[in-house]
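thought: fold this chain, then report.
action: predict
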Amino acid sequence: MHYVILGAGESGVGAALLAQAKGHTVFVSDKSPIQPAYRQKLEAAGIPFEENQHTDAEILRADEVVKSPGIPEKAPIIQALREKGTPIISEIELAGRYTQAKCICITGTNGKTTTTLLTYHLLKAAGLSVGLAGNVGYSLAEQVMADAHDYYVVELSSFQLDDTYEFRPWISVLLNITPDHLDRYNYSLADYAQSKLRIMRNQDSTGHFIYNADDENIQRYFKAALRPVQQLPFSLHHRPDYHLGAYYIDEERVCVDLQPGFYSKTEEINTAASPLIGQHNRQNMLAAVLCARLAGIEKPQIEASLASFHNADHRLQPVGELNGTRFINDSKATNVEAAWFALDGIRQPIVWIAGGTDKGNDYSSLIPLAENRVKALICLGLDNEKLKASFGGVVPHLEETRSMADAVQRAAALAAPGDVVLLSPACASFDLFKNYEDRGRQFAQAVQLLTDNQTNEEANE
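observation:
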């Protein structure tokens, strides 16, 4: 069989290597330059490739195409392949054909990465043989070649799910559905929701579907009664209308029941030691704890591992403390909803650093939180007019800056012991920074510099 791989990033190169290892001929095509590390892998394997172009004649020779999730359906080469009737699949679909390992697959508009990393951490800390894959930046296909793991924890975006057909997770997790990427889904929330729900459409009674019972859009689009899969909903509250898989008894205690109904046997797991902040992370913990229990991990191990978890950078990440003020880097909060979760999750008075490239933001949902919790707002962006108009009459103090170093210095000056300085921009980063990672790193560096300066001053006294 002849495979053409479109896109030579992590997923594409992984798919190319797996397809070749399984005896197929392979050609890789990328419309952009291929990163040196990936080019090296293709050359070492002797896989032919092209970059900076798509040669239609070469691509249309394919028996099957593996498409990068970043290539939209409307791309001319995809339209040409559809016209010809060539099957187009994702790297995840290809990988699923060649592994017997149990896949725990996690999707949702928000919280995917945190839940994926926490689930992986819980399994790994318990000594299980587990791989981390998917949208977190590791190719499932390349790992499947070695077939060294009994479990994979896989973060899946809607784009990756769109080109899956037979792929069947052992556990599928749906955290939430809120409007996002609708330009790829005919501006239809229903189409986007169906894309997310593809994660569990092939599951049968041997599989488990973990989903958020508090999410209105999941309730609207998931037809629970029609599915044979074992369903384990989770909620922040005990909801008698559900035979729930997991819910909170109070802020720090989770009730877990893997066998709802007649054989019900509940157990309590304490989450107090977890460093994760905010209501959304309490939901993420419910999903991860359910996955861990289904994998056979016992309560004491889960409680110990929750305490030792470190989340991915730039997601409500503590980066330092100075004069009793904590500094938290939430640079990944590039939209209003993510900033809402951050403001909602912090109980102490907040000096908030926000701003950047506005994406048509409506800040109205943040106003009640800002009124109650934000003592000062520092606008960090080239154009702060919308932020000033929204929050000028809401927060006691507002000022502007165009430098991260200045923003951190001003925030530290305005903060009192017990306060939190929070970088949660609610905006994209491209006006002053390369990306949200660059913005978050500059924040952490500026905090470190302040801390170092204070240490030096104290040493010289």
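thought: worth noting. The CA atoms of residues 245 and 258 lie 6 Å apart.
final: tokens above.
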